[in-house]
């Protein structure tokens, strides 16, 4: 039986180099990054992508994407994107700012995916049968569990790429 | 083994050369240590169920580290856990605590919102996927534990949960 090269996945990760240490060439033209933000104007800055990862796959009805950018001035921008397939789940894009990789880790660890799950259940509408409310609650719970699981996987992946201790 | 033959096992070459190793942990910062790969076993993902890898490392301070990863087809990010263990019992416990059934992406939407036939069919299909994945994972773990270099583990193979 052919042996499996198990380290190949680890070697393919983006950043075993220290992303904060890699200098941006001040003479080269720094690309302009434009990030969509839910409920806010887009964020535009000059910088480079440090790393990114997504949990997108053919099956699940929701997924996350995280992109980390370093601005020319050296600070970091975290771009968290939530995508939902069904019509009742809206895509949500949020950005956060950090000055160090440790701060990036703290922000990601503190992020609650419950923010992204629409939990509108018509509990005050007497015309809606209790069984329908129970079903909707079960769907919300399922999506919440899925979002939390995927986001945890994504944090693990990003922090592994950045090698944050 | 659930589907016969698609598990594979590697043993690293000796002598050991220590290197810095960083292992993914879902929701956590990576586990980083100096060590060398001792054993690895894997089962590749298929269209209807995830694959997984289990890797065992010797650490430079004389302990072991175990890494478990669950890979879904088409997804570049695994569900992962890794721990440093000092005894075979801790190794078995670490492998047991990583239950792939709790870590799979499942879509029950059809079961919750479709008609009764859809609900029964969806629930049965999901249940079958879960059990097949768990059986694959148990086979991979057993392949690691039955290896001569982890011989004391043979007496305490994981429970058939």
List keywords for this structure.
heterodimer; A: 165 residues; five-stranded antiparallel sheet; elongated; B: 161 residues; alpha+beta; six-stranded antiparallel sheet; 28% helix
Counting helices, strands and paired strands, the structural category of chain B is: alpha+beta
| Secondary-structure element string of chain B | EEEEEEHHH
* Distance linking N and C termini of chain B: 15 Å
- What summary fits the major beta sheet of chain B? 6 strands, antiparallel
Mean pLDDT score of chain B: 80
The helix content of chain B is 25-40%
Please, could you describe this protein's structure?
The complex is a heterodimer of chains A (about 160) and B (about 160). Chain A has one domain. Chain A is about 30% helix and about 25% strand. Chain A is built from three helices and five strands; from the N terminus they run αβββββαα. In chain B, a hairpin with a 4-residue loop joins strand 4 (about 50-60) and strand 5. Chain B is about 30% helix and about 30% strand. Chain B has one domain. Mean pLDDT of chain B is about 80; it is low at about 1-5 and about 155-160. At the A-B interface, helix 3 of A face strand 3 and helix 2 of B.
Concise description?
With 165 residues, chain A is α+β, with helices and mostly antiparallel strands. Chain A has one domain (13-162).
Give the helix/strand layout.
The complex is a heterodimer of chains A (165) and B (161).
Chain A: H1 8-11, E1 32-35, E2 43-54, E3 62-71, E4 76-84, E5 92-98, H2 101-110, H3 130-162
Chain B: E1 8-11, E2 19-23, E3 31-43, E4 51-59, E5 64-71, E6 79-85, H1 88-97, H2 109-113, H3 116-145
Antiparallel strand pairs in B: 1-3, 2-3, 3-4, 4-5, 5-6
């Amino acid at each position: 039986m052919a042996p499996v090269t198990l380290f190949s996945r680890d070697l393919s990760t983006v950043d075993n180099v220290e992303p904060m240490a890699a200098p941006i060439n001040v003479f080269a033209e720094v690309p302009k990054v434009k990030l969509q933000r839910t409920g806010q104007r887009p964020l535009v800055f000059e910088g480079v992508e440090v790393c990114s990862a997504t949990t997108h796959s053919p099956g699940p009805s929701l997924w996350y994407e995280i992109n980390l950018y370093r601005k020319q001035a050296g600070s970091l921008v975290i771009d968290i994107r939530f995508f939902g397939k069904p019509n009742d789940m809206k895509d949500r894009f949020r950005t956060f700012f950090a000055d160090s990789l440790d701060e990036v880790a703290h922000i990601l660890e503190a992020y609650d995916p419950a923010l992204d799950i629409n939990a509108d259940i018509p509990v005050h509408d007497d015309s809606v049968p209790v069984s329908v409310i129970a079903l909707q609650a079960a769907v919300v719970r399922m999506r919440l569990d899925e979002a939390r699981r995927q986001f945890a996987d994504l944090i693990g992946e990003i922090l592994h790429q950045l090698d944050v201790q | 083994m659930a589907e016969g033959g698609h598990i594979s096992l590697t043993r690293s070459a000796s002598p050991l050369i220590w290197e810095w190793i960083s292992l993914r942990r879902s929701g956590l910062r990576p586990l980083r240590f100096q060590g060398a790969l001792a054993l690895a076993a894997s089962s590749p993902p298929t269209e209807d169920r995830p694959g997984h890898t289990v890797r065992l490392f010797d650490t430079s301070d004389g302990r072991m580290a175990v890494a478990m990863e669950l890979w879904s087809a088409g997804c570049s990010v695994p569900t992962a856990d890794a721990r440093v263990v000092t005894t075979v019992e801790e190794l078995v416990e670490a492998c047991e605590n990583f239950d792939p059934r709790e870590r799979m992406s499942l879509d029950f939407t059809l079961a919750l919102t479709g008609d009764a036939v859809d609900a029964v069919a969806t629930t049965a299909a999901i249940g079958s996927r879960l059990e097949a994945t768990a059986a694959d994972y148990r086979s991979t773990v057993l392949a690691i534990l039955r290896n001569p270099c982890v011989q004391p583990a043979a007496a305490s193979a994981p429970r058939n949960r």
